[in-house]
């Protein structure tokens, strides 16, 4: 079993919390532009960034993205 990263769910999480990108930037130290890049799927978060964001929004790391199951290379499952 293997997975690939899908859509970033951070915009939905921020909406649920009533937060803006700026609010998250102030809590994490990341720039508002970097958070916007993640939210718009321009870049995928590095695991250390995911952990920081997950702690700030009080969600598990895996909830920050859609996870799409894919077949492993070589047809193994």
Task: Explain how this protein is built.
The chain has 77 residues and is an alpha+beta fold. It has a single domain, classed as 434 Repressor (Amino-terminal Domain). Helices cover 45% and strands 17% of the residues. The chain has 4 helices and 2 strands. The protein has a two-stranded antiparallel ribbon with strand order 1-2. The longest helix is centred in the C-terminal third of the chain and has 11 residues. The chain is elongated, with a radius of gyration of 14 Å. It starts with a strand and ends in a 7-residue tail after the last strand. 14% of the residues are buried. The model has no long low-confidence stretch (mean pLDDT 94).
CATH class: Mainly Alpha
Fraction of residues in helix: 40-55%
Rg, nearest Å: 14 Å
Shape, per Cα inertia axes: elongated
CA(first)-CA(last) distance? 5 Å
Architecture, CATH level 2? Orthogonal Bundle
Q: Total domains, how many?
A: 1
Structural class given helices, strands, pairing? alpha+beta
- Residue runs with pLDDT of under 50 for 5 or more positions: none
Mean pLDDT figure: 94
The tally of strands reads: 2
CATH topology: 434 Repressor (Amino-terminal Domain)
Question: Which band does the percent of strand residues land in?
Answer: 15-25%
Order of helices and strands: EHHHHE
> What is the count of helical runs?
4
- CATH H-level homologous superfamily name: lambda repressor-like DNA-binding domains
Strand order of the largest sheet: 1-2
